[in-house]
Every structure is written in structure tokens, then in C-alpha cells.
Amino acid sequence: MWPPRAAILPALLFSCLALGHAQESMMLPENSVTRVSEHVYAIVGFPNIGIVVGNRATLVIDTGLGARNGAIVVKQAEKLAKAPNLYLTTTHFHPEHAMGEQAFPPRTLIIRPAVQQDEMNQHATELMDLFRGFSAQSKELLADVKLRPPDIIFDKEIKLDLGGVTARLFWLGPAHTRGDELIFVVEDSVLIPGDIVQDKIVPNIPSDDASVKGWLAILDQLEPLKPRFVVPDHGALGDGSLIAKERAFLLDLETRSLELKRQGKSADEASVIVAAEFKTKYAGWQTMGPVSNVVKRVYAENP
Ligand SMILES: [Zn+2]
After folding, report:
1. How far is the CA of 96 from the centre of ligand 1 (A)?
2. Which of 36, 57, 38 shows the shortest CA–CA distance to 49?
3. Ligand 1 ion: Cβ-proximal residues, 5 Å cutoff
4. CA-closest candidate to residue 26, choices 287, 291, 234
5. Ligand 1: centre distance to CA 146 (Å)
6. How many Å lie between the centroid of ligand 1 and the Cα of residue 210?
7. Cα–Cα distances in angstroms (integers) from residue 251 to residues 60, 176, 257, in the given order
8. Helix (H) or strand (E) holding 192
9. Are 150 and 112 in contact (CB under 8 A)?
10. What is the predicted pLDDT for the residue at 5?
11. For the segment 256-275, what is each residue's pLDDT rounded down to a tens digit?
């Protein structure tokens, strides 16, 4: 059994909104694409969007926030595409990753893990309401969201032969959400890990559905892939070394929280201590705000 579902905590504000403000706008850039490898491109923005182009089909990873952003993604994907077949998948159900799908043409095949779809069915409305409260822009972008059922649902893994390039879409358990999906583009050795691997961004635990233990277990399984390139959901693009950096940070955070727990500190006390220590120890990382929810989750996972 998963822990009882809690309301999504304001922690989400730190990753999604802080990053949104850092971008100054929740609009993706138009006509702006970074070539990552032979078949993989990224639109760098809020969030980063992956586009994998094969001879037979194109795979888009994430939609942007609302239909206007979705349309920017579609336009870019169609410019790059070599064939009309189009797949769309989403790294998790949060609005800037999944709530622009209505802009995709009807021929698009939407694919996601069963767990992610289940989570979306339960929490999409709640998350959209939360995001609408962030700013006038996010309210407008999410004004008229229409979601449709996916065409393909998978349990743990599906392989897409896009023609000359293969994408593995897989689910390894809960981390940032219950339904985090990761994508590995085999021939190009590119990992698109959602929020699971990022560059100097504190892991975000937005609700009781998220899992620190699960997150660490996933990082252990990603390490042997040794990807040449990593395209995180948020922040700078990087290489395979980001996996070890993410793991070291999260493990350090878990270990220090457990130490303080053994010393009898409450989760709130430990949050303040760890945030202050890590601000110095990990200078250059984005805001330490999300640390407190990680600490609280570690306490809950280790009663
Ligand atoms: Zn998210």
C-alpha cells in the first residue's frame, strides 16, 4: 500500500514556480532548439522538452504548460520530423509536463506508464488549480485544458523503434511522483530522466506519494546506463556524471537527516539545520527551500 494520499504540498512552489520565475515566463521559446545528439533535440525552457527524430516516427517528451506551449512544441517537432508518425509521452503528470497535450494533432499516439495515468486521473484537477494560483500567466495558460485518454499504457517498459533509433520508456517506481517515467535513447546514449536527475537543483518531494528511498534506488539503476548526455526536465543539460552528483547529494541529505533523527531532533528542527548546512556545503545549488520536505519524507520513511 502506498502511504495515504496527502494534498500536494506547497513545496511544489519551490521547483516549479521558482523555476518558472527564473525563466521569467512560463512560455517556451519559439523556433529555438538545441541539438543534443544525432537524433535528439531539446527545447530548453520551462520545462525542457525532448524531441527524438527517427526515419519512421518522432517522439516528443513533455508538452509545456497549456495548449499554447503545446503548439510551440508541435511546431518544432514537425519542423524536425522525417515522417508524419508522432508519439507523445510525459515524464510525470505535473501541469508543465503534461497539460499541453490538446495542442497535439489527433494522429498523435499518447503513451504513458499505467501508474502515471492513474495518478493523473486522481490529481490532475488539484494540480491545475494549484498552478492557476501561481500567476495570471499560468491561470491563462491553463484556462481551457482538455486531456484525452492515452493510446498506449505500459507497466514497466516499452521500446519504440522510431526508425534507425530506439527509445526505451520505463518506470522504476516512485520518486518525485508515483509515476515518473524515464526515457533512454539507446543508439545516442541520451537519458531523459524527468526530474530524477538534474544539475544542482534540490530534489523536490511535493507530496506523500514521492519517495526518497525510491529516488535513490532509481539512481542506482540509472548509473550502469552511463549515458553520454542527460536532458533533465529543468535546468542545464549535462552528461552522465549528473547521476552520481544527484545520488551523492540525496544520500548525504538522507544520512544527515537520519543522524539528526537519532539525536532526537524533530523533523522541523532537522530541516532548519540541514538547510543551513547544505547551503554552505552545496554552494551553487539552487534554493535550499525543498530540503525541508526531503527531510520530512526521510523521517516518515524511517519511523
Ligand atoms: Zn514535477
Report:
1. 8
2. 36
3. 94
4. 234
5. 19
6. 10
7. 32, 15, 10
8. strand 190-192
9. yes
10. 30
11. 999 999 999 999 999 999 99
Alpha helices in the chain (DSSP H): 12, 18-22, 66-80, 95-98, 114-132, 136-141, 212-222, 241-262, 267-281, 291-301
- The pLDDT, as a whole number, for residue 24 is 61
Show the cell assigned to 229: 548526455
pLDDT in tens, 68-105: 999 999 999 999 999 999 999 999 999 999 999 999 99
- Set of cell numbers at residue 107: 494522429
Q: How remote is the CA of residue 242 from the centroid of ligand 1, in Å?
A: 18
pLDDT beneath 70, residues of the chain = 1-24
Gap from CA of 300 to ligand 1 centroid (Å): 21
| 185 CA distance to ligand 1 middle (Å) | 22
Distance of CA 176 from the midpoint of ligand 1 (Å): 7
What span, in angstroms and rounded, lies between the C-alpha atoms of 90 and 117?
A: 10
Report in angstroms the alpha-carbon separations of 252 from 173, 198, 278, 281, 300.
21, 16, 9, 11, 17
Q: Which fold has domain 12-240?
A: Metallo-beta-lactamase; Chain A (3.60.15)
| Residue 203 CA to ligand 1 centre (angstroms) | 10
